[in-house]
């Protein structure tokens, strides 16, 4: 393979664009699937599922690539961690939905949503790192 092509494919902009594009599509399709299966609800299950599953994926990716001694593995973290998970997870949507729940008088639903998302996300990262064999997890 030509050296310029390898440099292009492994360039951070390329890795982030490809990973982010795939992550954004995965977010859209998983959200559509959850809404189809669960129907309309006062609780934003689709975003909740995306945030928690994104936390699990990021836990595995971080364990496998972030602190690996082989520098070439850091490209995988850019592609999968920063790119895919960045395009996939929906924290900004989570924040907006939480605010809308509070604005519409569903304060306890908002509290459950915020607390549940944070606890389940933390647990997801911890569990993934534990299953991946990360020390100290």
List the helices and strands and how they pair.
Elements: H1 3-9, H2 12-38, H3 45-66, H4 74-88, H5 91-103, H6 107-131
Describe it:
The chain has 137 residues and is mainly alpha-helical. The protein has 6 helices and no strands. α3 runs parallel beside α6. The mean pLDDT is 91.
Number of strands: 0
Mean pLDDT: 91
Structural class: mainly alpha
Q: Uncertain runs with pLDDT below 50, 5 residues or more?
A: none
Helices and strands, in N-to-C order? HHHHHH
Helix content: over 70%
Tally the helices.
6
Distance between the termini: 40 Å
Shape: elongated
The proportion of strand residues reads under 5%
List its traits.
137 residues; 6 helices; 80% helix; mainly alpha
Quick take:
This protein is mostly helical and 137 residues long. The protein has helices at 3-9, 12-38, 45-66, 74-88, 91-103, 107-131.
């Amino acid at each position: 393979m030509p050296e310029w092509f390898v440099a292009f494919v492994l360039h951070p902009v390329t890795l982030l664009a490809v990973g982010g594009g795939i992550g954004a599509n995965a977010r859209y399709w998983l959200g559509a699937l959850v809404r189809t299966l669960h129907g309309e609800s006062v609780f934003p299950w689709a975003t909740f599922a995306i945030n928690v599953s994104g936390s699990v994926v990021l836990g595995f990716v971080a364990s496998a690539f972030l602190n690996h001694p082989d520098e070439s593995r850091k490209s995988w973290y850019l592609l999968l961690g920063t790119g895919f998970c960045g395009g996939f997870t929906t924290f900004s949507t989570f924040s907006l939905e939480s605010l809308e729940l509070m604005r519409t008088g569903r304060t306890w639903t908002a509290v459950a949503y915020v607390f549940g998302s944070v606890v389940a996300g933390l647990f997801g990262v911890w569990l993934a790192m534990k299953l991946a064999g990360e020390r100290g997890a």
